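So, can you check these tokens?
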Amino acid sequence: MAKVVRYRMEIQGMTCTDCEHHVAKALSHAGGSNIQADFRRGEAILTAPSDFSFDAARSRVAEVGYHVVGVHELVEETIRALPRDDSTEYDWVVIGSGSAAFSSAIEARRLGARVAMIERGTIGGTCVNVGCVPSKTLLRAADLYDLAGNHPFSGLHIAQESIDLAALVEQKNDLVATLRQQKYEDLLAEYNIDLIHGEAHFVDNYRLQVDHRTLTSGHYLIATGTRPLIPDIVGLDQINYLTSTSALELTTVPSHLVVVGSGYIALELGQLFRRWGSRVTLIQRGQVLMPGYDAEIRQVIGKMLADAGIEVVLGARYRRVDQRDGLAALEISVDGQVRVIQGDALLVAAGRVPNTEELNLVAAGIKVASAGEPVHNAMLETTNPRVYVAGDVTMGPQFVYVAAYEGKVAAQNALSGSFAKPIDLSVVPAVTFTQPSLATVGFSQEQAEREGLAVKTSVLPLTAVPRALANRETRGMIKLVADQDTGRILGAQVVADNAGDVIYSATLAVKFKMTITDITDTLAPYLTMAEGLKLAALTFDQDVDKLSCCAG
């Protein structure tokens, strides 16, 4: 196998597949090989020989109308030649059956691989079974219930009635079963993927045992996901507590829900039960709520929780928990003062931990990091070159769309017979489905300044967004972060109805290096929340309160 060095060139001006062809041809004439141009990503990946001239490459690209604006060396890789080994039973064995697993298995089948999937429990993984799908459908129900009693329209006479939580949970379970069948189980036969039920563990660096069966495969993927992290609090193991999984199965509304943690899961579930009538207390060790957001956004989030009647306790140290008079009693200290918080339900939402303890990774020569996640490189390859990793088990961004992307890339890197492609998680949007919802992508101002970047910002309150005024819901704001000199959009944060929909437009702006002017010169549909992005961009240079509707 020949050693090669790969480079990534950032190229401006490509808008279509013809552009890709022109760029690839120009780089080939300059001496490059194995060129993969991508107009959507604004890049070309190529192999550079020792005598390759980047100045000549820039000139060749400029001759056909494009501009090289950056060159980055990738890892030293090897040309992969993976002929089918008939001594192995499969080419690609996937451990797990969630989003990363299915995305990877489908891509492997597209590449012609023999594929098996191993699942020890319910097929489908976290998202469809106990995460995104069940939580968001119940959150929608809670939003509607809250609006019935707290809408802003005078003349609209509706009222809240009692909640049949058991019926809502049954409807939620029906939806989960339907999507699990359609989006997971039915696809096994569609793509000719073998499903093997059982607990998997490595026997050595190339064999896997599932119960009493031993499998051999050219390559393996660990996509086993995560589970709730249970913190080491004295007495916690002696009481009945909830996790994000069991909380979604409750059929009665707690009187007082005490939550250990105040991240996005805690916020979503805390608001869910608050809207159904629970008193809710969120507790966290850190002194800053939602630290990934800038100060202005954190203030809005804090006010949102306070207005909802949700108590937030910051800077807590957990001392112990026990059962008192039928209630969970959590003893904490804050600023040296001891406090006991009692509730009839205790929810532990303090993070996640990877599901790797049963895999016997040491037998396969796979190193693990501090939380138990497999050590891996940017190509998702573990310390065993036969074994790759993808999804939540990596302890990277815990989003289903990241998992699906990683699963696909892992299969391509292991099986495509071409050069390995590093994953790119530089632009990952995140959404918290509270009401109003929270969304972010790219750099916050605080993150950018920590990186030494010179930035400028705009902050637009929702009172300046016509859609928010029409909705009579003006809680929130939009903040943009841009490069001080070029005006390139580096990040966005949104607190608003449908912030998750708005953030996708901002994601495209960050990913494709759009500038403030690119946004202000683009037509935005009136009376949409996404129009707020354009108004926020206009706010860099002018007071939008002094513009007429739709003016830009």
